[in-house]
Amino acid sequence: MERKIRVGAVSYLNTKPLVFGFENGSMVDQIELVSDYPANIAAKLLKNEIDLGLIPVAVIPQLKEHHIVSDYCIGASQAVASVCLFSEVPLNEIETILVDYQSRTSAALLKVLLLHHWKIAPKLIDTNSGYQENIKGTTAGLVIGDRALRQRLLSTYIYDLASSWQEMTGLPFVFAAWVSNKKLPVDFIQSFNTATSEGLNHIDEIVATIDFPEYDMKKYYTENIDYKLDDKKLEAVKLFLDYIK
Predict the structure, then answer these.
(1) Reported pTM
(2) pLDDT (tens digit per residue) in 230-242
(3) Which of 3, 91, 189, 192 counts the most CB atoms within 10 A of its CB?
(4) Domains (range + CATH), the chain
């Protein structure tokens, strides 16, 4: 491609290891980097406003053409901590769930778990900014990302969606993957793959730059998030996409 390749990243703490290389000069002559929350990055890829993005995997079936272009992702092999259903009451007493507007995969995973794992049918309500303050009584809320890490300090009941998926399927979960909407040059993909892994060798350095007292960032990056997109996670993506068809 003669122009720079447009890359969409996600503006959450969990992506810092994946974008560390780019933010420190890797591929600066080859890419144009933009950041937003997951659903907006997905929309940009669907509209061809970017060529490659870290997108919620639930969006993959909507793309006319897609290629997973990195061996790294936002995944979880145990509790993810930052994608949870928060409530003041136990699951069986929840009447309404406020659904986070920032990620399609988390919303889709919630629906899969409600139907197939928890077997409850509360009313689901789409939200916009600031909805977390309405999580009270029998109204629960799906909260993701940095706001979820803060919500952990406030809610009585916390149901981790990655853990619940693992209980149901025995597989890890993938929330987001690097996906392109067109075939990209092989040498670019090789360089991109190397760049996305750079931050995993600099976790302590990344943690030192973050002012987020609400959660242990070292634990988050080394225990909660599992960045390697291995065969088990690819199997999980396939199963998840089968569920949401």
Answers:
(1) 0.93
(2) 999 999 999 999 9
(3) 192
(4) 5-74+173-231+236-240 (3.40.190.10), 83-169 (3.40.190.10)
